């Protein structure tokens, strides 16, 4: 699990202060829609407690939940990569307390400060890699061979 501590571990103390100075603690009630697929990604969160469901639009059906995030996890990375649009939607499953960051401010800091920028990109890349691995594991559970012999019972 990639957490805010992982990000802070990569930073010198003065850079940690920069991030904590611009962070905003938020409390979000259950069933709060945080963002929609295809809309502008202008912020991101690190979840302190509670759960958020990531969902994908399915034409003619209800959105499909593709992953649920919880304590210590990064919510949102589309803000870091042009064209800065969400690839999924997100809704709180329970009350969520989180640390919220303004994406534009963080992007500007990353551009002006290579140490902070490298740490942020590593943090987001690790998050993406961990989630990709988790997705592959779930796909194998759903569609992979059911036994190690390769033969059906």
Automatic annotation (TrEMBL):
According to the record, the segments passing through the membrane are: none
Q: Which organism was this protein described from? A: Streptomyces tubercidicus
Q: PROSITE patterns from the xrefs?
A: CNMP_BINDING_3
Q: What is this protein called?
A: Cyclic nucleotide-binding domain-containing protein
Q: Which Gene3D superfamilies match?
A: Jelly Rolls (2.60.120.10)
Q: What region holds the Cyclic nucleotide-binding domain?
A: 7-76
Q: Which InterPro entries match?
A: cNMP-bd_dom, cNMP-bd_dom_sf, RmlC-like_jellyroll
């Amino acid at each position: 699990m990639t957490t805010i501590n992982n990000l802070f571990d990569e930073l010198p103390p003065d850079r940690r202060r920069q991030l904590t100075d611009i962070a905003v603690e938020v409390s979000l009630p259950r069933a709060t829609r945080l963002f929609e697929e295809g809309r502008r990604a202008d912020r991101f969160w690190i979840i302190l407690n509670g759960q958020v469901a990531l969902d994908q639009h399915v034409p003619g059906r209800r959105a499909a939940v593709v992953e649920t995030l919880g304590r210590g996890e990064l919510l949102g990375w589309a803000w870091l990569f042009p064209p800065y649009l969400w690839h999924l939607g997100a809704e709180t499953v329970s009350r969520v307390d989180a640390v919220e960051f303004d994406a534009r401010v963080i992007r500007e800091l990353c551009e002006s400060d290579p140490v902070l920028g490298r740490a942020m990109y590593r943090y987001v890349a690790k998050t993406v890699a961990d989630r990709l691995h988790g997705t592959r594991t779930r796909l194998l559970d759903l569609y992979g061979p059911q036994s190690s012999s390769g033969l059906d019972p």
